[in-house]
Automatic annotation (TrEMBL):
Lineage: Eukaryota, Viridiplantae, Streptophyta, Embryophyta, Tracheophyta
Keyword Cytoplasm applies: yes
A molecular function GO annotation: zinc ion binding
Species of the source: Cinnamomum micranthum f. kanehirae
Record-linked SUPFAM superfamilies: RING/U-box
Zinc finger (RING-Gid-type): 328-371
Pfam families cross-referenced by the UniProt entry: CTLH, zf-RING_UBOX
Domain RING-Gid-type: 328-371
Segments forming domain RING-type: 328-371
Compartments reported by the entry: Cytoplasm
Keyword list, A-Z: Cytoplasm, Metal-binding, Zinc, Zinc-finger
The protein, known as: Protein RMD5 A
Length: 385
């Protein structure tokens, strides 16, 4: 069942819960008002010493509460809510399979590599104690190889969060050659933010002094950025209402932290995202399809564990595509090791099985489905992505 159906069911239960809560509060307020009025009458009778029997007021109160019937009113609304909750719970149990082991495939993993990925994930999150504990229990001393590097990255990022750019500037200066080779202008971004911070906190003179000391190396390729910073000097103390107010946006700091992480990981030969986080996120997206497939195959008494390729598409989104994917324009099948892409003499590309079907023979010529040229199977060459 699609998530939209579950959301609709949740909205209906939520609406009933709000109605029940409103009805309950209404009944409580009604009973409360009757009690308050009776207390006022009792207090008045005592002050006036009229000799009126106070039991009369209590009897009237009991009679009015019986007329209100709070229990009957609350039971009705509560019963509707309980029915809705019961249906919603059954829908969740039907839609979400708690036993996800059905989607498990017995795939051979390199335990050493997996352990390193887990340990590295802890270190890049700044959880050094947890990473040390893991590699000790897993007997993977090599997993701590990147510990010091990721601890440095974590320390720099924590400083950036507190608007302290000195550690980041020191790291960039130490790795300037490699960053320039990567085409990164991270150093200029750091100096730009530092300039704005100095202008805001210490004034025009200190900001101008900082600009003269650090910005000249970037003048040839980033003059527009430097001119904008110089114009900010005219708006000191009121930069937030100037034409350059956008330079104060917190998004610059967020993008800086992202760029810093990306470049740091690049210099370490690591991916920007944690491989463990990517694997978990991809698994969460693909799990519903795999569970459904496992249930269908089990109902047909078929074994899907031995399949080399899933019989259904598993769409994970472009963020999980890390290599080129070729889909045959004729059969619409994705290329595999057994059915690789083949380059024809006319430069069109089809999968091997499509070419074999078109040729009907290894020596017979066949016409390309996209142009007038003809070819044989022997003339086609396998492509490697």
């Amino acid at each position: 069942m699609e998530l939209s159906s579950i959301k609709d069911a949740f909205d209906r239960v939520s609406k009933k819960q709000k109605l029940s809560s409103s009805k309950t509060q209404e009944v409580i307020d009604q009973v409360g008002r009757e009690i308050e009025q009776t207390l006022e009458k009792l207090q008045s009778s005592q002050d006036a010493a009229s000799g009126v029997d106070q039991k009369t007021f209590l009897t009237e109160l009991k009679s009015k509460i019986n007329e209100i019937g709070p229990i009957n009113q609350l039971e009705g609304s509560q019963k509707e809510l309980n029915v809705g909750l019961s249906k919603y719970t059954k829908l969740l149990e039907k839609s979400f399979i708690s036993d996800i082991s059905k989607a498990y495939r017995n795939v051979e993993f390199d335990i050493h590599t997996v352990n390193q990925i887990v340990a590295t994930h802890f270190y890049r999150q700044g959880l050094s104690d947890l990473g040390d504990c893991f590699i000790n229990e897993a007997h993977e001393p090599e997993g701590a190889a990147l510990k010091s590097s990721f601890l440095e990255m974590y320390r720099i990022l924590e400083a950036v969060k507190s608007r302290n750019l000195e550690p980041a500037l020191a790291w960039v200066a130490a790795n300037r050659a490699q960053l320039l080779q990567n085409g990164s202008n991270l150093e200029l971004k750091l100096h730009r933010l530092q300039f704005v911070e100095i202008l805001q906190k210490r004034g025009r003179n200190d900001a101008l002094k900082y600009a003269r000391e650090h910005l000249p190396p970037f003048a040839s390729g980033h003059m527009d950025d430097i001119q904008k910073l110089m114009a900010c000097l005219l708006w000191v103390g009121r930069l937030d209402c100037s034409p350059y107010a956008e330079i104060l946006s917190p998004s610059h700091w967020e993008k800086l932290a992202e760029e810093l992480t990306r470049q740091f990981c690049s210099l370490l030969g690591q991916s920007y995202e944690s491989p463990l986080s990517i694997a978990m996120a991809a698994g969460v997206q693909g799990l519903p399809t795999l569970l459904k497939l496992a249930n269908v195959m089990a109902a047909k008494q078929q074994e899907w564990q031995a399949m080399k390729q899933l019989p259904v598409p598993l769409d994970l989104g472009r963020e999980f595509q890390f290599h080129s994917i070729f889909v045959c324009p004729v059969s619409r099948d994705q290329a595999t090791e057994e059915n690789p892409p083949m380059l024809m003499p006319c430069s069109h590309v089809l999968c091997k099985q499509s070419i074999v079907k078109l040729s009907k023979s290894s020596t017979r010529t066949f016409k390309c489905p996209y142009c007038p040229l003809e070819a044989t199977v022997a003339q086609c060459r396998q492509l490697y992505f």
